Amino acid sequence: MDKLQALRAFVEVAESGGFSSAARKLELATSSVTRAIDALEEGLGTALLNRTTRQVTLSDAGKTYYSRAKRILEDVAEADAAVSDRGDEPSGPLRVSVPVEFARQCISPHLSTFLSRHPKLDLDITLTDTVSDLVSDRIDLAIRLGTPPPDASVISRHIGNFSRYVVASQTYLRVSGTPVEPEELTAHQSLRFSYGADRQVWTFCKNGVQSEVVVTGRLKTNNSELLREAALNGSGIALLPSWLVASDVQSGRLTRLFESYEVNPNNARSAVTALYLPNQRGSRRISAFIDLVTSAADLR
Asked: Domain spanning 3-84 has what CATH number?
């Protein structure tokens, strides 16, 4: 068994916790897997695995070796994919970073169809609202809401826009009144998303004229779904993306305010951006997932 195959055997044993289960996944004889691990340990002069009759675990040396071996196998798979991914059909591993609620609302309902359409693609999605470092986090494609700062080392591709709605429940509006003009928000409880600065401004634009309103309220969070729930429960007025609350507005659970205005928080833009490294230019995997995002989120 060659060294690369031996590394695959070792990683599989470490992840499955046994020689027999690893052999089944690799479609090899258990004895072949055992000999491969024995050869690795002999060559290294140390035990990689702690073996008992009941379980197999990594030794201290094995933990270090596992992380390096895992990275090597991922690099090999990525190299293979980089060559084969220029064909007609997307293939190989694709590691994607997507904002949490955007993924749940817009991407999740379409994943089954996407995977059926691309049977040679292996998808690994990380849900996070923090900005991923494509290199250190080993991310092939990051989907971001807004326009990221310029970065010459990364390709930034604008793939669409969405709207933001100012919404409240009828319960809240009956008790606190319905604001007619944006400046009336200063007398209301605003449910605010954490954008970093404590002072938050909602920017309204109508017929080319822009105005700013400083909003305040007792609830601020970095999770848009929590703000949606708070708005539904009558806790205040929220500024939320259309892809999150459009169905609530349509059903009457939430009422949209200031419909004639375009509105954004602070300096944020209502844009969806795809970020990837220059060596991924022309990747069928990248293009396929961007197409999914564009159609699933109904970006204009």
From this structure: 1.10.10.10
Enumerate the CATH 3.40.190.10 domain ranges in the chain, comma separated: 92-162+270-296
Question: Contact 260/235 with Cβ under 8 angstroms?
Answer: no
Q: Which residues contact 289 (CB under 8 A, 6 or more apart)?
A: 94, 96, 114, 123, 141
pLDDT along the chain (300 residues), means of 10: 84 88 88 90 90 87 89 76 66 92 93 94 92 82 85 87 95 97 96 81 92 94 94 97 95 97 84 89 90 82
Q: Would you say the pTM of this structure is higher than 0.70?
A: no
What fold, for 92-162+270-296? D-Maltodextrin-Binding Protein; domain 2 (3.40.190)
The neighbouring-strand residues paired with 20 are: none
CB of 209 closer than 8 Å to CB of 87: no
